[in-house]
Amino acid sequence: MIDISASPTSTTLVVSGDLDLAERDQFPEVTARVTGLRRQLVVIDMCRVTFMDSTGAAFLISLADSSRNRGGAAVLRGADARDLFVLEVCGALELFRIDRDHRCDDVPDAVEEPSIV
């Protein structure tokens, strides 16, 4: 599940569950909604992501590309080491700012993020 909210300057996506091939049918609609909001900053909250594969990574990459094309940025918040590894293997980690200050307070199995630049 992906919840979308917007402020005057940013769009926030809160992702819950798996971000993978099985969920790909919702990705075009979510991408269209986020793009239509035309906010400079896209924040992707991954505290509740349980699994991400290369299909999920491609979705995140498309969001980051869209934001960059508008002169904005994409921020990953609450991404754990395995999520960052998938993006790194895809050669796309540099497309994202990593929010290292965010803590997933209400997620029982939150994992500390590695210190990746």
The rough form would be described as globular
How big is the Rg? Answer: 13 Å
Task: Report strand %.
Answer: 25-35%
Uncertain runs are 110-117
Strand order of the largest sheet: 1-2-3-4-5
**Sheet/helix structural class:** alpha/beta
CATH level 3 topology = Transcription Regulator spoIIAA
What's the tally of helices?
Answer: 3
Overall residue-averaged pLDDT value:
87
CATH superfamily: STAS domain
Q: Got a strand count?
A: 5
Query: How many individual domains?
Result: 1
The arrangement of helices and strands along the chain is EEHEHEHE
Please bin the fraction of helical residues. 25-40%
Termini gap:
28 Å
Q: What profile does the largest beta sheet have?
A: 5 strands, mixed
CATH architectural type: 2-Layer Sandwich
Text of the CATH class: Alpha Beta
Key terms:
disordered C terminus, single chain, 117 residues, globular, 5-stranded mixed β-sheet, Transcription Regulator spoIIAA, 3 helices, alpha/beta, 31% helix
